[in-house]
Design goal:
Layout lengths: L10 H8 L10 H4 L3 E2 L9 E5 L3 E2 L7 E4 L3 E4 L5 E5 L6 E13 L9 E9 L7 E8 L6 E4 L7 E4 L2 E4 L1 E3 L13 E8 L2 E6 L2 E6 L8 E6 L2 E12 L2
Antiparallel strand pairs: 1-18, 2-3, 2-6, 4-5, 5-18, 6-17, 7-14, 7-18, 8-9, 8-17, 9-10, 10-13, 11-12, 14-15, 15-16
Length: 234
């Protein structure tokens, strides 16, 4: 595991010097030196919704709602995503998810599927040009290099350059359905790591995307997200 997966004691001082302003809570890393909540648990300040066939900030079926305790409930009756308004680079992103019971067309007979798209660039659409931490039953932690304008992104994994498509995780780390899983994405320059429940399952270098928005997917399966946090890296 690379050096940046360890939370060094000096990181707080480096973050304080950086003075980066984060979305959602509006807190400054210079003031806290710690991870801050991207989702404040009360409303979608700092985020916007994009629903297929409806567009930006139109959600007629209540795909994305907030439940007591600050949990994002995704009903997934339509494909779409919840996106940060701002772009981010050089960070550790953590969140928790668990599956609900319901599945919807066209994936009612397929494995439950969702994901965290990051370094998202270009126009809003399903799906944006991005890197994806795959959240799918049995495949949590896979990388998807999702295409877009100018061609699909690329990433080198274990010496092999991949352009577009799926890169399979190194090992399994997800918990059984109904339990909360912790996702961790470490993006440092052009290098990325995926961890699921603190287990490193994907690592790559020479990523063609290093900065962009963050999307939480709705992809046909009921899912819950909570504790969405971002820690800037020096």
């Amino acid at each position: 595991m690379k050096w940046w997966t360890t939370r060094a004691a000096g990181a707080a001082l480096a973050l304080a010097a950086a003075g980066l302003v984060l979305a959602g809570s509006g807190a400054r890393a210079a003031e806290t030196g710690k991870a801050v909540r991207l989702f404040n648990g009360k409303n979608f300040d700092g985020w916007y919704k994009f629903i297929q066939d409806e567009g930006k900030n139109s959600d007629s079926q209540g795909v994305f709602t907030i439940e007591d305790g600050g949990i994002i409930h995704v009903r997934s009756t339509k494909f779409g995503y919840l996106s940060t308004e701002k772009e981010y680079e050089n960070y550790r992103l953590t969140l928790e998810f668990k599956w609900g019971e319901k599945k919807y067309p066209p994936r009612e007979n397929a494995p439950r599927d969702a994901g965290v798209l990051y370094h998202c660039v270009g126009p809003d659409k399903v799906w944006m040009k991005s890197l994806e931490f795959q959240i799918q039953e049995g495949d949590c932690g896979d990388m998807w290099l999702t295409g877009g304008e100018g061609g699909a992104p690329s990433l080198t994994v274990k010496g092999t350059k991949h352009t577009g498509g799926r890169v399979v995780k190194f090992e399994n780390g997800e918990k059984p359905n109904g339990e909360w899983n912790e996702v961790e994405i470490v993006a440092k320059g052009d290098t990325i790591q995926h961890l699921i429940n603190h287990k490193l399952v994907m690592e790559g270098t020479e990523a063609s995307l290093t900065k962009g928005r963050i999307n939480l997917q709705s992809e046909g399966a009921e899912i819950y997200y909570r504790n969405v946090r971002l820690e800037p890296l020096p």
